[in-house]
Amino acid sequence: MRDAAFHAYFESHYDSLSRLAYLMIGDASAADDLAADAMTEVWRHWERVQAADDPAAYGHGIVMNLARNWIRKRSRERLFSLEVLKRAPESDVPAVLDVRRALAKLPHRRRACVVLRYAFDMSEREVATTLGISEGAVKSATSRGAKQLAEMLGGSLARINGWEAAA
Amino acid sequence: MLTDDELRAVLRAEAAAHQPDRAVILNRVTQTAMRNEAARRRAPRVRIAGAAAAVAAVIGGGGFAQWALAGGTGSSRPEPPPPPSTTTVTTPATPPVTTGASPKPSRTSPSQQPHRSPSAPPSSAPAATSPLWADGSVDVGGKTQASSVVTIRTSESLTALDVTIRLARTAELVSRGGSQQVPGASVNSSVAEEAGALVYHFTLSSGDTIAPGTYTFFARYTYAQGGRDAGADSYAATATSGSGAALKASGAFG
């Protein structure tokens, strides 16, 4: 039954959709909103989601599109929180902000690939399905994005470790 | 330069740091579904109506589910509340909370940690006749993260509600966003950075009505290791009841 199936989909995926949105846009409250909007889209295209090889990837792909639109809109409004993070002074900022600021500096596709590969442990093939791009494109964007991110975060690793220990 | 494993650990920790709010997500799915359903009311095949029903089924029984289902079928949507009358009832004054930029704790000695004075007013002390009751508490979620929670209880329906949670700046205080549990109504939240405080603001969408009941608002944040003194934090709620009365409640956390 469709309702029960959507119910199950919601319970299984609302969490990962919101966390994915959070890593993509850096705003906890807006991430929940994006996850909800993605869920609504999933419902709207339920037949297509059900027919997809990977229904979870379908939802993740929607989040990625919504995240890009959200960032564009916020950039136009000069309110994009990650823009603020980019400009924030480097010192005396908790490591958690360093990670978000560094992610914000990556172009959308690299950020998307790095987040899906590293934080969500997806294979290159799964990422390709989610983003609707080739595996070759995933490989190259991931490798460039990871290198860029690793360099940016290198200096603050000590503080990141401290933060992890505290969390 | 981080290694691949380090990068993986950092990104996973960052993902784990975000706590999705299931109720907020569920609520928004239902809201959107019902708005769309209203727009397509005349469509012969109303698919979206099913989404509201499915989501209502997700959260089970209760007033919200029935409300969502009513919206979904379009048969028995709640009537909009009557326009507020012009008579404004002033609720008995609650002790005003200092919301200035510099809540100054009295310092008896330089080394003493500032604490809330033991004679601080109770969280909220409206007269027994006020339909609006509020309380503030701190929900510690780890060594460096917590939520300041404001619980609002109303015995009347509300056509307007604003809740403000003001957190005094402390070491490494960083907002993790605001969220709320207000089933059946749409609430906008925002966080503003002021000189001496993080200010979380929650506003009921105009046109929405909150039924009598208990609702919670969360200001989430992280802070420096070693704990955080919530003594200078405060909250305030203003509301308009279905009968047009202006209601207020305010207080502190602790």
Give an overview of the whole structure.
The complex is a heterodimer of chains A (167) and B (254). Chain A has one domain: Butyryl-CoA Dehydrogenase, subunit A, domain 3 (Up-down Bundle), CATH 1.20.140. The termini of chain A are far apart. In chain A, helix 1 runs antiparallel to helix 2 (28-44) and helix 5 (81-87) packs across helix 6 (95-105). Chain A has helices at 2-25, 28-44, 46-51, 55-76, 81-87, 95-105, 108-119, 124-131, 135-154, 157-166. Chain A has 167 residues and is mostly helical. Chain B is of the alpha+beta class. Chain B has helices spanning 4-17, 22-39, 47-59, 63-73; strands at 132-140, 145-154, 158-168, 174-181, 187-193, 197-204, 213-222, 234-241, 246-252. Chain B contains four helices and nine strands; from the N terminus they run ααααβββββββββ. Chain B folds into two domains: 4-73, no CATH class; 132-252, Immunoglobulin-like, CATH 2.60.40.2430. The N and C termini of chain B lie far apart (43 Å). In chain B, helix 3 (47-59) runs antiparallel to helix 4. Chain B is 22% helix and 31% strand. A five-stranded antiparallel beta sheet of chain B has the order 5-6-3-8-9, with no helix packed on it. Chain B has a four-stranded antiparallel beta sheet with strand order 1-2-7-4, with no helix packed on it. At the A-B interface, helix 1, helix 2, helix 6, helix 7 and helix 9 of A face helix 1, helix 2, helix 3 and strand 4 of B.
